[in-house]
Sequence to fold (441 residues):
Amino acid sequence: MKIHFVGHACIVAECSDTSILMDPWLSGKIFNNSWTLRPEPALDPALLDRIDYLWISHEHPDHCHFPTLGSFPDSFKQRVTILFQTRDSAKILAAFKGLGYQHFRLLPHREIVPLTGETASTRGTKVYCYHAGLMDSALAVIDNQQVILNANDARISTSECRLILKDVGHVDVLLNQFSLAAYAGFEPPERYLPERALQVLRNVSEVHRALDAKVTIPFASFIYFSSEDNKYVNPFANTVGDAYNYLQRQGQTAAVLYPGDDYEVGSAHDSSQALQRYAALPGWDELPYDPLETKPLSDIFDAYRAMSQQINERYPRALLMLLRPVTIRIPDLDKTVEFSLASGQIAEAQESYQPDLSINSQPLWFGFKFPFGIQTLGVSARFKLHQNFRNWKMHRILFSLNNGGVYLKPKYVLTADFMNYVRSRLAGGMTQAVHYYRTSL
Fold:
């Protein structure tokens, strides 16, 4: 097999009898205009003619970027088959159909699925999907006894690695995310961000070791934080050179690819030229940043009330009563507000209150406006956390469940779909939940 690196989390796995394009994001800003590609991807349009399958790992826009997916030629959309996990697939497939895609194949959790052979035991390219967390997934591509595992930014634990190895046998190439992709907002950032960045590198090495991977390709971190209120993260981010050197110090092999580069599975690879090209990119101070956008308090209140109504319809009141109110300082409006999911209320608070968080008006409005908004707030690192971390973390878990379609009122829980979901995730589910709780931001 050959891996062609397009950019960020996008690769093409070129197999003996088919080719799979994965997670394309080719242009534009994402996560509420908070991330920008660095460097720009490189996709030869002629390559699209050789693509038979398009795998999307999960719905985050640096992996499922609808403007990119919509920009592909109609002939491509009519010909390729989209591969996606079975879980929570209805809304995603509806969106793909709206863009003009016609062929889909859903991948179950922890099953080897033949793409070109008749069965999992016959020759031909096969894929294996591991559903991770509430929405993520990893994909193994198996061809001629070679295995590449695209972990994208799924935080796979070492115990999950053992499950994957049990299922696929071995891993020749691991593709893994290597830098900061979110921040919990702890103050001051210079105290917390260096350790968080090092933790990411440790995880890359641990997963490499747990999978006994022959090579890790660092990817899915080729962005910069590009708003005025999150650019403080950039100086603490890991470079691809940091990831390469860290793995080398652990006695592990890494291969660095620049957009447009190829890697032949099983062959030696010289990373020096790619590392030089990354090192020559403009520094953080030379990059453009978006100014702050302001939203009126009335818009924030309207977005909150609509979101709160949905939460109260989907989750038991007894659960919501466990959450204390949250106080937020809005610096650009010079206002302080307090909201309570238990009561569904939001109101201005006295400025003398010590706030739990500081968030500017537009990212706060965005957080309330969309089901994925609070997750975006964490990914974009556009807030500061002052106190009551545990209460805010429990809110974030609830918002993540809501975005993932995991509703806990009896009318949602006591359904065949929910029970099948729970049953399919029992193996490794508890250890995965503990791992996500410990490492979540």
Summary: The chain has a mean pLDDT of 93. Residues 297-408 form a domain with the Nonspecific Lipid-transfer Protein; Chain A fold (CATH 3.30.1050.10). Residues 367 and 398 are 13 Å apart (CA to CA). The chain has 15 helices and 20 strands.
